[in-house]
């Protein structure tokens, strides 16, 4: 196994063993109960828009692994099959390894092979050129491309990048040079409103906040090599605070909630805070690896059904109604938003 493949397998193992945290801020967010919702569960419409894309539901499987040989082929095939079966979107993991080495392509291509008509997102880092973005899109006939920002993860890796200059310029070139919507995402450290505004101004379609409180790449990288750059372990903006931050800049850019989402209630709260969709990564990977494919599909279907129950209880027929559902925000999320002048 090559070094990159080894790293990917280690990421999966440590993502599972460092556990999925529950510090994403959603426990500070409470819905205001509605006793007269005047709705039936059969009225609920889960369809949503992310930028120019229409999705049949707001839940999707977020970018995980790509490259790395047999194991990742099996994982990616299962994730994409499950997305197809449950009719949700799915993102591939970073495709840079396949751009650099053709032998790695099958582990990405399999996702389109088993999911011919579904919505699939391509994925690259902000070091990518326009040509590389177009190769990644064509490789899987992607409906959109995610560009990930992972500064802290790189810094924590001894072999990681150290130069983060001009990322915004490269992203702008990609926005102008590809034919599909561009989603810019974090990987678990959250996004603030100033960065969101910069991204909105260069025309990205959607911002995936990738908030703190779920998969923690600082802990994962530190664990991989028993090193202690522990100052990054608690670093980041929680998912709840991040969504509220980005939502405060207006609705010209779609918001995706992600980072530690493990239930329909987290998903519903993401939407009520301003997101149009929510991505789940580590939680679903863990279910697949520990319990298998059937449980993975069942969990996704249960999450969708639970979301219809929550929306019914709130009297929210559509995702747009849910975005306007009243909330009370308490605790450290309230404190954060007050300090940041967001209400
Ligand atoms: C990831 N994530 C990720 N993100 C990305 O943009 N490109 C990638 O290649 C990967 N690879 C990857 C591998 C593994 C094993 C995990 C668990 C995660 C990050 C992922 O998309 C997401 O942003 C974070 O994991 C936070 O969401 P969760 O896991 O808390 O739901």
Itemize the secondary structure elements and their pairings.
Blueprint: H1 3-17, E1 29-31, E2 48-50, E3 53-55, E4 59-61, H2 70-86, E5 89-91, H3 96-100, H4 106-113, E6 120-125, H5 130-139, E7 144-149, H6 151-156, H7 167-177, E8 182-186, H8 193-201, E9 206-208, H9 217-224, H10 239-247, E10 254-258, H11 264-272, E11 277-280, H12 282-291, H13 293-314, H14 319-323, E12 327-329, H15 331-339
Parallel strand pairs: 4-5, 4-11, 5-6, 6-7, 7-8, 8-9, 9-10, 10-11
Antiparallel strand pairs: 1-12, 2-3
This protein binds ligand FNR.
Ligand FNR binds at residues 11-12, 15, 62-65, 93-94, 123, 146, 148, 185, 187-188, 210, 214-215, 258-261, 280-283, 285.
Uncertain segments are none
Largest sheet geometry: 8 strands, parallel, barrel
Task: Look at the structure and give the mean pLDDT.
Answer: 94
The structural class is alpha/beta
Q: Assign the CATH architecture.
A: Alpha-Beta Barrel
Radius of gyration: 19 Å
CATH class: Alpha Beta
